[in-house]
Structures are given as structure tokens and as C-alpha cells.
Amino acid sequence: MVTSDPGAAPKANCFECRHFFITHEPALPYGCRAMGFKSRELPCAVVLRSSDAPCLLLQPKGRPGNP
User: Per-residue DSSP letters for 13-65?
Assistant: First the structure.
């Protein structure tokens, strides 16, 4: 997660989230398992536009050696 302002809340990044997946459907290429939807754009962008808040269900992926 990257922030431009040290006092700002961290921005969600779907590529770092364990709930994010690629659907391989040309019309709806991205999905979120936690929220149960597919979309044309990254789920974190859809959530931000819909709720005016960053995704609160972001869970970092487990890294090798860091489950």
C-alpha cells in the first residue's frame, strides 16, 4: 500500500489482496471474492467510487515464509 500523504489512510491495491482474482472473462476481467462481484475495472476503484472510501476488506496475500 502506498500513500502520498503521510497522514492519509492507505490506499487499497487489489493486486496485493488475497480476495482479488482474474476472471478471464473479456467483459468482466477482475473480481473480488470478499464482496462477490466482477467488474471491468479493479474492484478497489469500484468500491472507492461507490462508497467514497477505500476498500475495508483488503487482506494482504500470504507471502512465502509469511503466511
Answer: -GGGBTTEEE---SSS-EEETTTTEEESS-HHHHHHHHHSS--S---BPPBTT
CA atoms within 13 A on the CB side of 55: 25
For the entire predicted model, the pTM comes to 0.74
Residue pLDDT, tens place only, 7-54 = 555 577 999 999 999 999 999 999 999 999 999 999 999 999 999 999
Q: Which amino acid is at 45?
A: A
